[in-house]
Design a protein that fits this description.
Blueprint (H helix, E strand, L loop, with lengths): L6 E12 L2 E13 L4 E5 L6 H8 L7 E6 L2 E2 L9 H6 E4 L13 H11 L4 H14 L16 H13 L5 E5 L7 H18 L2 E5 L3 H7 L2 E6 L2 E7 H6 L4 H8 L11 E4 L34 E4 L2 E3 L15 E4 L14
Parallel strand pairs: 3-8, 3-9, 6-7, 7-8
Antiparallel strand pairs: 1-2, 1-4, 4-5, 9-10, 10-13, 11-14, 12-13
Length: 341
């Protein structure tokens, strides 16, 4: 890793005004992604993951803080000054069925970002052939339209479009959540291969912790728009320091002999309009003390590349089941499943 991160968010905040009040989508988020690194970003729905992705792509303007790409403040870029950034930073969207224009051939879809960068036709045609080969699609795919492909193939096309101009980093927002489980592993393997071949950096946003663990070097956990833990992937799964992270780990669906029971986190995240005082997780936390309701914990260095925002890091009571409630299909009686860690 280089001293200068490829992408860095510094105290990033995003707020939206609504008739009900001010929504704090992101609250003082800081993170780094280095060249060739894959960083996973996890959290429940509403935690701010997609907002962060769109803010990085300049689709949403931050309310505070800054975004730097290779040391340059991208928030200060406007108009034509953004063109070099578009080449270096690309995005893969969640739904491969809506992210590809159904009226365009695959060749036109892949050529679009290259036209924007001023490539000539012979160079574009050669690049399209390279891209189709790189993502495991036949050459004749270029003349066909998205409707002629499966969901997994469409996501391969979306990845090919993202890597077309030769970016240094790709933001992937839930890149496999819309796909069958049997296809998800193929897309993950493709992303890993591309990273190894081109030193491509990824920010992979997902709610599937096992998938992120498989692909990521580091994992960052968001809760209610705030980073609550960051650690090397293997360490975070093995020994989570924040109770919320422990909840995500233990709530990973497991299958018992009956095949249906699972564990889920208790309660719902608070409203981003009516945010709790102190630690945002304290209403759901089994180890919360009085100070957790009044004092917001800062994200602090826990050593060995780990950071955590908790007054009592690592104090996760055994068994972890205290954090969760058991859900089984109505009318069925299943033995308690074992949480995998």
């Amino acid at each position: 890793m280089t001293a200068t991160p490829l992408m860095e968010a510094r105290n990033l905040s995003v707020r939206f005004a609504t008739p009900r009040g001010l929504v704090h989508a992101l609250d003082d988020v800081s993170l780094k992604v280095h060249r060739g690194e894959t960083v996973g970003l996890v959290g429940e729905s509403g935690s701010g993951k997609s907002t962060l992705a769109l803010t990085m792509m300049r689709a949403i303007e931050p309310s505070g803080g800054s975004l730097l790409f290779d040391g340059t403040d991208v928030g200060a870029l406007r108009g034509k000054a953004l063109k070099p950034l578009r080449k270096r930073l690309q995005m893969v969207f969640q739904d491969p069925y809506s992210s590809l224009d159904p009226r365009m051939s695959i060749a036109r879809i892949l050529a679009e970002p290259l036209h924007a960068q001023g490539w000539d036709k012979p160079r574009i045609n050669a690049r399209i052939a390279e891209l189709l080969d790189a993502v495991g699609l036949p050459a004749d795919a270029a003349s066909r339209k998205p409707a002629q492909f499966s969901g997994g193939q469409r996501q391969r096309i979306a990845i090919a479009r993202a890597i077309a101009p030769g970016p240094e980093m790709v933001v992937a927002d839930e890149p496999v959540s819309a796909l069958d489980v049997s296809i998800q592993a193929q897309i993950v393997n493709l992303m890993q291969d591309l990273s190894a071949q081109t030193n491509l950096a990824w920010l992979v946003i997902a709610h599937d912790l096992p998938l992120v663990h498989q692909i990521a070097d580091r994992i960052i956990v968001l809760y209610l728009g705030r980073v609550v833990e960051e650690a090397p992937a293997a360490d975070l799964i093995a020994t989570p320091l924040h109770p919320y992270t422990a909840g995500l780990v233990a709530a990973t669906p497991t299958v018992d002999n009956a095949g249906r029971a699972r564990l889920v986190l208790k309660g719902e995240p608070p409203s981003p309009i009516d945010r709790p005082t102190g630690c945002p997780f304290h209403p759901r936390c089994p180890v919360a003390e009085a100070r957790c309701a009044t004092d917001r914990p800062a994200l602090t260095d826990a050593g060995d590349g780990r950071h955590v925002a908790c007054h009592y890091p690592g104090i996760v009571p055994p068994p972890l089941s205290r954090l969760f409630t058991k859900h089984t299909p109505e009318g069925e009686d299943h033995a308690r499943p074992q949480c995998t860690r």
